[in-house]
Amino acid sequence: MNNLISEEELVLIPGGTLITNTPEEGRQLAIAMARRTIHNIQPNKDILNYGRKIYSVNPDSLILASQVVAIEFQTIAAANNYWRSCYY
Question: What is the pTM of this model?
Fold first, then answer.
């Protein structure tokens, strides 16, 4: 049985751009990129879900995951010129 993440979900940058209209959209993109990075590292849904049972209740793992999102968000913010100096 093939239980792999779909090809669409393995695209590292959804929409193919880091440019967003608002910081909120940028944050959403950062979360999506972080999740897709994990999917690319571990594309088997069964193994991914098994690991989730462990890290989802571990505060250190959750803090590390949020750090990855923060790093992605910094990259997106820079690409957006910090939302064009606070909304133009």
Answer: 0.87
